[in-house]
Predict the structure.
Amino acid sequence: MYELGLAYPFWVIVLIWLARVILLALICTLLAWLGIRVLDVLTPHIHERQRIGESPIATGLFIAGFFILVGLVIHGAITALTVVVAPILGYIFDFRTWGVLAISFVISLLVGIALFHIVDKLTPRIPFISINKSPVAVGIYVFGYLVFFGLILHAALTTPL
């Protein structure tokens, strides 16, 4: 006869859940780093990583954007509706969620860059390339990208599959 209650002790479930949250945060951090690298390639006239390092304010904005991204990812991983079921490794290493994150990463990057270029063309009196003249402007630009990407990843993590 089955007992009513948890199949695993509560502390084990919390540790499993915590391992999943940490793993998802690491994966999303890797995606954010990769996103910045790809952003350098897709916007060759804006030297993000080089310009941000030239100003402490730009560096601070970059770090703030990164923390917001990580906060959104952790919030998404924590609040995602999931059930710990056997096998435990399948719960922690959920390749379906990883696939959704990867697709979200590619789509957000391509859509974001496409919209950047479209809006740049539609507003000729606002030369977007001029942000490269100021490290702070580049820091704000990358800050916005990191928050944008964090929202995309948060949505991917909290979407019921």
Remarks:
- The chain has one domain: 10-158.
- The chain is about 75% helix and 0% strand.
